[in-house]
Write a structure and sequence with these properties.
Blueprint (H helix, E strand, L loop, with lengths): L5 E2 L2 E2 H35 L7 H30 L4 H12 L4 H8 L5 H13 L1
Helix pairs in contact: 1-2, 2-3, 3-4, 3-5, 4-5
Length: about 130
Amino acid sequence: MRQEVQYGTMTKDRLKQVESLVCELEEERERFAREAWHHKRIEETYGVGCLFGRDALDAARDRLQAIEAECQDERDTVRQWIDRVSDSMTRRALRLRYLDGKNWSECARRMGYADESGPRKLVERYLRIG
């Protein structure tokens, strides 16, 4: 049985991919910060302009920029799709979860629900009906 739910040009799997890209972007930013710190330490040790570690820093910067571009493209597509959702509460839940990267508990808290099942059910219902 196919687990993918289709709605317009959006799928549940594609929303999961955007969610994963947001997490991947944060992880890559952390890696880049570590690489930049490491490069700074090398320059302090061997002098400014030292080529040691420059390739790793450049590669980390390239990876980060590629992921940022991919993430921005996917988020723009999802944002446009969410903007077409007529129900305000569903839009809020979708934005918080898939654009802002909040977990369901945080979505519930911000939306005034007692627990995470509220916004999750809103989204699931929309995906089934939508």
